[in-house]
């Protein structure tokens, strides 16, 4: 990989040298759909062999500009152009990584951060599958298998895309909890979140921070990269090195191109580049209507339904009465009586009035990120919309879960359900339910459109 990073570093210098922008290799590798659908190991192998080919091909041709000349030119005329300080650009020039985000990307795909070296962030948040866990054959896709090959979590892996828009976790003056990362908001932000999985016993399973830092030090590129980007001191303190790792991963997750492209049919529609079908348009109107549905009470951030950059969540926490996932739990020998306390698991919360509430998820890419809800209890998007309808329709047929043919299960926690919000709005007939589903499909990023089932 060393040679690839050398090339990347030169690519980074290229605009300064001759104003020709050379694309970074790492961006191409991980988002090309065909490529990304290969197994991860296969992908690493191909990346490495491709890199080797390039190294052979370019070998002597790529002659590095003399460091001192480069830095002189940089401080003279180029500082400010890229929004980086001279010191930052200088540091990056000595690093095998072009910047913090490039380091974060390497970490995001690195299985060496897990105990048995089998699992990276991307294992459970695969870029080619809308950053969710692609292993849908395991536990119906509801729960993620850990690095130990046996542990299953209790919650469905949310997509890591668009996660950066969640504000830091806080409780508003009116008592409403907002934001944070995880279903219960227990990590304030992306960097704090990224520190969790490596040490989580049932995820990447490393025993402690020091062991993770030793793994980082096994890789000479990380050693050089961390030193260049964070200074020599970064290795003298375990917390400093661990914190630097989490900040780099968070920087990668801030990349719009990969994590927040805002290029779905819906975004194209707002820009006048896509015409909604009549069914999608009906769904859109219903979704944003105050009268016919309640969806936008919780799944709308901006004040106007035609504002660009909508994330389809206001990041507030609610209990919408989701039943236990009994079927998947019993099929996988997990305790079927387990109760997830939701927001009450957040260390900043100790009032039982918050029990069973979850952060309202973004609906971007929702059509390709099933199964649904914090416990993956519903397989189909249409089931989710029918589930909401149980609150507003008294018709007997609407009190049945179409996936089981039985009554909707008893809510996991009953006394904190947001009934006021959920009972606002009309009953939806099948035509309207299908229209809302069609609208939700338009929230799929362009590169995931091929994943949409008919
Ligand atoms: C074994 C699977 C697994 C691995 C590995 C994993 N995650 Fe997750 N991730 C999950 C699950 C499950 C959740 C939800 C857990 C919860 O809410 O308690 C989650 C939650 C998240 C969230 C919160 C999203 C939101 O909307 O709240 C982000 C961001 C995230 N993971 C990024 C990462 C990063 C970065 C790494 C690597 C350092 C990583 N994950 C490793 C399974 C995994
Ligand atoms: C009271 C706030 C609220 C209202 C109203 C609401 N939602 Fe939700 N929505 C949530 C919360 C909270 C969750 C996650 C619940 C859980 O996992 O326990 C959720 C989950 C979902 C999911 C599953 C997402 C995923 O990734 O698993 C979909 C789809 C969805 N809502 C669509 C809708 C639609 C369509 C409407 C209108 C018919 C609607 N919601 C109304 C708060 C709300």
How would you explain this protein's 3D organization?
The chain has 454 residues and is mainly alpha-helical. The protein has two domains: 162 residues, Cytochrome Bc1 Complex, Chain D, domain 2, CATH 1.10.760; 187 residues, Cytochrome Bc1 Complex, Chain D, domain 2 (Orthogonal Bundle). It contains 21 helices and six strands. Strands 1-2 form a two-stranded antiparallel ribbon. The longest helix has 19 residues. The relative contact order is 0.11. One heme C binds next to helix 17, helix 19 and helix 20. The site of one heme C (HEC) has 26 residues, from helix 17, helix 19 and helix 20.
Write the layout of secondary structure elements.
Layout: H1 2-18, H2 25-31, H3 33-37, H4 40-58, H5 67-78, H6 86-93, H7 100-108, H8 121-124, E1 170-171, E2 177-178, H9 190-194, H10 196-199, H11 209-217, H12 220-230, H13 238-253, H14 256-259, H15 265-270, H16 278-288, H17 295-298, E3 317-318, H18 326-331, E4 358-359, H19 381-389, E5 400-401, E6 406-407, H20 419-422, H21 430-441
Antiparallel strand pairs: 1-2, 3-4, 5-6
Helix pairs in contact: 5-6, 7-13, 11-13, 16-21, 19-21
